[in-house]
Amino acid sequence: MKLLIADDQASLHTFLDKMVDWLSLGITEIRHAYDSKETLLIIEQFMPDLLILDVQMPFMNGLEMLKQLKQPFRKPKTVILSAYDEFEFAREALHLSVAQYLLKPVDVALLTSAIRELLASIQDEQQAALAHELGRIVQSLSCPAESFEVIGRSFQALQIREYMLLDVDGGQPSAESLIEWISGLEDAIIPVVHRKSPDGYACLLGMTAPVPAMRLEELYRQLSDQWIERFADSQASIGISAVADTPDRLLELYRQSEEAGLQRFYSQEAVNLYKEGYFTTDWRTRELQKYERALPEQVSYGFQSASVSKLVSGLFDHFREKRLHPENVYMLILHYVYITGQALNDSVAGKTEWAGITLDMLKAYRTADRLEHYLQALLHRIADKSETAPLAGETVLQVKHFVDLHYGEDLSLQRIATLFNMDKFQLSRAFKQELHINYWTYVMQARMSKAAEMLVNTEMKNSAIAAATGFGDESHFSRSFKKHFDLSPKQYRQAKTGAEGGS
């Protein structure tokens, strides 16, 4: 804290410097002024936290000088010293928000007590200001210049030399108990807490003295051990940033603390220290794309429990091996849920299970193990229902979906009936009864629809499209296409795109 002593008597300055142990009170910088003009100048430049001010000084009295301060936020906490016990002076001092009014000769004990009270008040105000700015930065994810100024002033007033950010997720403690708990870990730590959500806090840990690396490691262990002891049965977690010594890195450290908190997804540890490059964001890989097809295929094959377990385990093994960022994992799982739900859209066996699943619901499972267990359980419930569902109607829907996905393969009635464990005549009748269209007519419609899409959206040749849509040769494809659309493939492409389609 910074102190300015303003009195026209040099003897008072000497007396106070000799009789008061300023450093033990937390006063680290002291300036002296001997008239009102000098006092105003030093206040503007030095910006003291505390001011000991004599009422009677040259040029103007102390109370008139206080009225001259241009920026109210720079007005220090003030103790008035006066040789006159006058009611009017005291009343005006109160009107100017003077904190204490003491009579000369100075009683050192009274002055020391007043300084302690003011320092505690300043600390509370500066912590509140710091918490407010922390909240602004966390909510806006930006750090404007005026915030730097306020944070720097608070750091200086609170004597914060270094700091780190904690992301506390889980909502178990109250803000007050969190402050009390962190304060008890280390005397040199000043905790500042902002509640960013109903179940989450951003905490700034200001350190009034540099903390050696070994002590920091010990502090991390204390945080982890005590957190686990307090919240052993919850999913609450702490992410810890690196340490910085300038306010301009606050937003960077907040992002680090959030990332560190997410590391629990794979580490299973309740308290995690930020590690650069811990996650990968490369999630558009061939390895992941195969699951996008495999899950709907499971619907088509009838959801066998063993196959479901193997598929989901393989998916999460891939997540763990690559350490895919949890945000991407949640989005992928929701996508897989969505496309599997589409495959089950008309299915009594699974329709209600998928309805209403949201990203926030998935994020409630804060670790890969918990999320995998949830997905396994969900899919197994579908599998169990699928195994006991009415055979014909369910199987026809599965066959239809299989055709939609595998239009380029052998879709002969015999092969599909064998695949779905049905008699081919029974399947043919059931398909017609359920969908009001013959099985092979539907196959041709699916193939023609896909072929038309390829003609319009790609530059593939007719021979390649024929192969991709299950036709044995190009001439067979062209005859079938002409019969279906009353246009040749080339004519269709020209009509839809204006291009000179090739054969």
TrEMBL record:
It comes from the Bacteria. Keywords: Cytoplasm, DNA-binding, Phosphoprotein, Transcription, Transcription regulation, Two-component regulatory system. Its main location: cytoplasm. The modification 4-aspartylphosphate is found at D54. It is found in: Cytoplasm. InterPro entries: CheY-like_superfamily, Homeodomain-like_sf, HptR, HTH_AraC, Sig_transdc_resp-reg_receiver, Tscrpt_reg_AraC-type_HTH. Residues 2-119 form the Response regulatory domain. Residues 397-495 form the HTH araC/xylS-type domain. It holds the Pfam family HTH_18. CDD domains: REC_YesN-like. PANTHER family: HISTIDINE KINASE-RELATED, TRANSCRIPTIONAL REGULATORY PROTEIN HPTR. This is Response regulator. It comes from Paenibacillus sepulcri.
